[in-house]
Amino acid sequence: MRRSLQVKGITILLLLIITGCLWYAVMREDQHGLLTVSFLDVGQGDSIFIEAPSGRQVLIDGGPSTKVLRELSRVVPWYDRSIDVIIPTHPDADHVNGLIDVLARYRVDAVVHSSVESDTSTFSALNKTIADEKARDIVAMRGQIIELGGSAYLEILSPDRLMPHIDTNDGCVVARLVYGTTAFMFSCDAPQSIENYLVSLDGSALRSNVLKAGHHGSKTSSSDLFLGYVAPEYAVFSRGCDNKYGHPSKEVMDRFVRFNIPTFDTCAQGTVTFVTDGTRLWIR
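Now predict its structure.
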């Protein structure tokens, strides 16, 4: 009798698990045709998770610590242990420290990175982890297109040349995500000189619905000229609370107000997620 009850209990448990998985699959199916972009709350740093309508996934930067794993667990299914593309925009610790842990946890197909180099132990550890992963190693260069399927793609805007010994911020990977008539601008820690250089190359190609404010809201980024050409509907500050740098600066915050651009802040709101069907944009 006891054995019969145990068998029934196990059967019911298995049925509940299967039912849960089926419902989850149905919910994921409802996401088809949608692109999601999550600015992860990783503290004083950057980390952006993208899931294309095709299901392909991109992680831009990994923040300064293992906190990125916790945030990823909230936007990636528990059974999913792969990320198609990882983009370490530059070697600074607040962008790549967490990627070492991500590469240890997830299977990664390709790593797209700037040619800029660093002599830090973090940069050495990241390079070793990438080599151990045996992922495709791609040096980012202006003009490259990363196809994500479902008519979504990432275009690399900067750097436009090999620059191994330049300042890390000057050499960071600036990318623009496009899906239908919507676009997202990921400006890493690029200073105003790089922003304005991009405007001079082709300002009309910078228009985006959402802008990740450069360098966590530092006054060294988000120039008037760049904001004018990107003309975002929204901007996001990715930063830690009470950080020692004073990000975002009052000067930059005032500039966004002057341009009538509403802003979100991962310190205040936590992870900020945008969803688009290629025409309309929602904030989750």
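The first strand starts at residue 35 and ends at 39.
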